[in-house]
Specification:
By secondary structure, the protein is of the alpha/beta class. It has 11 helices and 12 strands. The strands form 2 sheets. It has a 6-stranded mixed beta sheet with strand order 2-1-3-5-6-4. It has a 6-stranded parallel beta sheet with strand order 9-8-7-10-11-12, sandwiched between helices. Helix 9 (about 230-235) links the parallel strand 11 (about 220) and strand 12 (about 240-245).
Length: about 280
């Protein structure tokens, strides 16, 4: 029998029962023979700070954070990475050996890595990216596209004010397009990204004209339920390269797992299958 501490990690949300992260991390722990556990934790907003500060004493080495806590954890953490500050939210916590809590955001990393894996021929500098939506996930997408070297981002949201705010936050690389003109913007796009919930199971359809899609464009949807949204189906029929949203979920989990458990996992077919179980 060993006295070594078994590392613990998990995902904090409210609600959290829908999260695929326990399946994903559980698969990696088993695959790599790591003695550790990853658990879902339903935490109410009023209990968040107390819960997070108690976790290191319970053996936790870190945690993922999901809705509605991604902004609040930044106020609790002792250190916040520059990318989390830029995005305005954190999805990964690291409990360091010196007792401090670091908050990071790996959503942008997950998005751009999934994009490169699913569309290996995509060149960020080939032309404008069209981004639909202006929520929290959109900020991570914009930050990663800017870092990748996309020359221009055409941003369109149902509520223009939110898109205008993102332009103020990120600068003139962003050109805001009215929602009713989103179809025209798509004609210019070498990359099309849907960051809205439109098209998700239980949500309204994405009603943006897609007849202007270029066959040379790459089209990706952050939604992974269903895996092939109407947007991706239409884009595929138009000859575009399409990338589903599941890979972003998988890739964003890699840096956290590596920090917590000391092994960098691969995102492969078995990983996708584990997340879809």
């Amino acid at each position: 029998m060993t006295d070594a501490k078994i590392p613990l990690a998990g995902v904090i949300g409210c609600p959290v029962a829908h999260s695929k992260s326990p399946q994903l991390h559980g698969h990696w722990l088993k695959t790599h023979g790591i003695a550790g556990y990853y658990v879902p934790m339903h935490v109410e907003p009023e209990d968040l700070a107390e819960t997070i500060r108690a976790m290191p004493k319970m053996g936790f080495v870190g945690a993922n954070v999901t809705i509605p806590h991604k902004e609040a954890v930044m106020e609790i953490a002792d250190k916040v990475t520059d990318r989390a500050k830029l995005i305005g939210a954190a999805n990964t916590l690291i409990f360091r050996k010196d007792g401090t809590i670091m908050a990071d955001n790996t959503d942008g990393y997950g998005f751009i890595t999934n994009l490169h894996q699913g569309a290996s021929d995509w060149d960020p500098k080939s032309g404008p990216a069209v981004v639909l939506g202006a929520g929290g996930a959109c900020r991570a997408v914009i930050a990663s596209l800017m870092e990748a070297g996309v020359p221009e981002i055409l941003l369109s949201n149902r509520t223009r004010e939110r898109a205008d705010q993102l332009q103020k936050d990120f600068g003139n690389l962003i050109r805001v397009v009215d929602w009713v003109q989103a179809g025209n913007a798509i004609e210019e796009g070498k990359l099309i990204v849907n960051t809205t919930s439109l098209g998700m199971v239980g949500k309204p359809r994405l009603r943006v004209p897609l007849d202007g899609l270029q066959a040379s464009a790459v089209v990706t949807d952050l939604i992974y339920a269903p895996l092939k949204t109407d947007l991706l189906q239409t884009a595929e029929e138009a000859g575009c390269t399409v990338v589903d949203g599941l890979g972003m979920l998988l890739h964003q989990a890699v840096p956290g797992f590596e920090r917590w458990f000391g092994h960098r996992p691969e995102v492969d077919a078995a990983t996708r299958a584990a997340a879809l179980r």
